[in-house]
Amino acid sequence: MDKSWAEVECMAQAASASDAVESDSFPTDIQLSRWQQLFNYSPQRSNLTRNRITDEHWSLVREDKEKAGHDRETYEHSLQLGDVMRSQSAAIPGVDGKMCFLVRLGGLLGTSENVRDIAGLDEEPKVVEGQSETGAAQFCVVDEEAKRKIEKWLAMAQLGGFEEAS
Questions:
Q1: 16 or 39: whose pLDDT is higher?
Q2: CA distance 57 to 142
C-alpha cells in the first residue's frame, strides 16, 4: 500500500474512533492521574500521533485493560512503549569492544533503580547526560543482555499490565 494512502487510512481510523470527540478536550484530573500512575509521567498529556486501534479491537480488550487501570488512550500508548524505548536509545562501542546501549530514562524507565530491577542487574547502571530530540536527557548505559530484558519486560507489560511484568 502506498505510504500516503496508509497515512490517510490511519487518519480516517483515528477520526472515526468512538472516543475521537473526547480527544480535543482538556485532560481531567482522573486522566492525568491515570497517566502518572501507569507510566510514571509528569502531568502533561499530548500524543496526537499515537497509533489508534479500531473500535472492534477496543471492545475485545476493554474489560481487561480497564481492570488494569487503562482507558483506550493509555492502552494505545502502551502498545508503542517498546518502539518508543528503541527510538530513544542508541548503541555505542564499549571499551571492551562489545556494544553498549544508552537507554533513555523517563516514564516507566524513570530511574536507574527501575532499570536495574527490570534488567536484573546486580547494581545500578551508569547514568550519563545527553541530548534527545526534546532537549537534555539522562541515559543508562547497559549491555545487550540488559537491553533485551528491558525490551522483554516492556513487551510483557503490554500483554498483562505492568505489575505482572516486573
A1: 39
A2: 36
